[in-house]
Design brief:
single chain; mainly alpha; five-stranded antiparallel β-sheet; three-stranded antiparallel β-sheet; flat
Length: 558
């Protein structure tokens, strides 16, 4: 029935299309809330010592879903009775809602049969509106629970995260275009974006910056893994102390799992130098672990280094930003001077340095954003600051990648474009062995005619070897006559230095008699070179006589 139903026109179906986009945004939000609620309820059911009701579990699920968007929660149930903020966002948990709203905005713009596609602005507005309506309902429901949302944080950064993911989905559906800048942008920017070279440099800088951030995150995760193995016993003790039953241990394990990306960002900040804060009175850097840390019992926090000045093992964490700088240089030179590229095709040193510098700026900006998202308060007073300082971490990433990436890119470019060494002939001349003088090859008299022939005719000449036709051997063989040219022809006259005589007029019988031209050895003229074809047929009196019916056969009475 739906396949045979009549399709609406664009004017009639416009409200329906916008309503469909609104519904897709609401469904995406509902899927995120539902998946979080199912997980929390499963853990609540499996816990034998749970002292809360199903309503409390649903309130906790609503709070976790809002926390995944960056909203700050208020924890009312504290030992001191003072509500404490919770702003540390599990980055792995935030991937689910961001992916859902991105997919909803992208799929709305996918054309389907019988349904027109809305505009990009309309799809973006409707998807974001539907998602935020569900988010507002969830925030209203969870305001009386153990984890209620702080209202200003619902606008920033929660609504901003939703809008950014939806905009990315619309851009993906459009094919990720790089359109012109706005009209108020400078004219120089418009001119630069109109050039393909600028777009190539910008794309290279973006990809290189992404590679540098990935190396920083991978190196930070490696540092955390090594530290956990080094402090395996304290981590195991804290894991056992937090939960005595299997349901509690699974909950602690899942919480540690969703915080792994946060730990990777912390490890990257530690390797970059600024480190991270464990409260307002403690800072952890490779040089020293100072202050009085406010460490809650958690397995990931058990991997902290020992208090006091750093050792050689702590300083070895600097290998992470070094690897990021080398990565920036390598990815820049991959496009600036590919292997085997000529010097004329490679980028100039200025372009290479500019691309590496822009990649370093992008790497610093991306690291700063991740550092801001990976930290946050976990309480009041001592736990008001927890995690890396975003601007210090971004500045350190910019400094490391710029100081190592720009010179490294220039050095790699110079290495790839180095001049080749002397050849074997040049080395022989330098040693006193003169280069042998080439002997000129003999010139064939058939050269001009054979040069005009196509490649398949040359192959045919070579395949038949000495199989020459009678017209190639007719005529004189003396000094001035060219071999293969008939007596009395233009070629014979030209070789003798006399003007070429006109061929004698042929009788009607001879003109009416068809004579097949020798196709195997006829030259094909090139019309672009102004080549004038000439007749290869013999015109001597003997052949004229044999062409007549009465003169055919041998001469005389015999």
């Amino acid at each position: 029935m739906t396949g045979n139903s009549p399709s609406l026109s664009a004017e009639q179906s416009r409200p329906a299309v916008l309503a469909f986009a609104l519904l897709r945004g609401a469904v995406a939000a509902g899927l995120g809330v539902g998946s979080t609620a199912v997980l929390v309820l499963a853990l609540w059911i499996s816990s034998p010592a749970s002292d809360s009701s199903p309503g409390g579990a649903l309130h906790a699920a609503a709070g976790l879903w809002l926390l995944a968007h960056g909203a700050e929660l208020i924890r009312a149930d504290t030992l001191s009775g003072v509500p404490a903020p919770v702003g540390l966002v599990p980055l792995l948990l935030a991937v689910v809602p961001v992916w859902l709203v991105h997919r909803a905005a992208r799929d709305v713009l996918v054309p389907e049969e019988g349904r027109p596609v809305p505009s990009a602005a309309g799809a973006f507005a409707m998807v974001v509106t539907g998602y935020l309506l569900v988010g507002a309902a969830v925030a209203y429901y969870g305001r009386g629970g153990p984890l209620s949302a702080y209202p200003p944080s619902l606008l920033f950064p929660a609504a901003l995260v939703v809008a950014g993911a939806a905009a990315a989905g619309v851009w993906t559906a459009a094919g990720r275009p790089s359109g012109p800048p706005p009209s108020w942008a400078p004219v120089s920017l418009h001119e630069a974006l109109a050039r393909g070279r600028f777009r190539e440099h910008a794309g290279t800088a973006c990809r290189t910056a992404a590679a540098g951030v990935s190396v920083l995150l991978g190196g930070g995760a490696l540092l955390v893994a090594v530290a956990l193995m080094w402090h395996a016993q304290p981590a195991q003790q804290s894991f056992v102390q937090l939960a005595g039953d299997w349901a509690g241990r699974i909950s602690v394990f899942l919480l540690a799992l969703v915080l792994v990306p946060n730990a990777a960002v912390w490890g990257a900040a530690y390797g970059l130098g600024p480190g991270f804060a464990l409260g307002t009175a403690s800072t952890v850097t490779p040089l020293a672990f100072s202050g009085r840390p406010a460490l809650p019992g958690f397995p990931l926090l058990a991997a902290m280094p020992a208090e006091g000045p750093g050792t050689v093992l702590n300083w070895s964490a600097a290998a992470v930003p070094v690897a990021a700088g080398v990565t920036v240089a390598w990815f820049t030179v991959r496009r600036a001077a590919p292997p085997g590229a000529a010097r004329e095709d490679a980028w100039s040193p200025r372009e290479t340095a500019l691309a590496a510098a822009l990649a370093a700026v992008g790497c610093g900006a991306g690291t700063a954003v991740l550092a801001a998202a990976a930290g946050g308060p976990l309480g009041t007073r001592a736990l008001a600051e927890f995690g890396p300082v975003w601007w210090l971490t971004g500045a350190a990433a910019l400094a490391w990648t710029a100081l190592l990436g720009v010179p490294g890119a220039l050095l790699l470019r110079a290495w790839r474009l180095r001049e080749p060494g002397p050849s074997m002939d040049e080395e022989g001349e330098a040693a006193g062995n003169p280069r042998p003088v080439p002997v000129p090859a003999p010139v064939s008299v058939f050269g001009p005619a054979r040069a005009q022939a196509p490649a398949h005719e040359e192959t045919r000449h070579e395949s038949h070897g000495g199989d020459r036709r009678w017209w190639q051997w007719s005529g004189r063989r003396g000094g001035g006559a060219a071999a293969g040219a008939a007596p009395g022809s233009e070629a014979d006259a030209a070789s003798a230095g006399a003007p070429a005589p006109r061929p004698a007029a042929r009788p009607a019988a001879a003109a009416s008699t068809p004579v097949a031209p020798p196709a195997a050895h006829a030259s094909v003229p090139d019309p672009d070179e102004g080549f004038e074809p000439y007749d290869f047929l013999p015109t001597d009196p003997w052949h004229e006589r044999t062409a007549r019916p009465e003169g055919a056969g041998p001469s005389g009475n015999g």
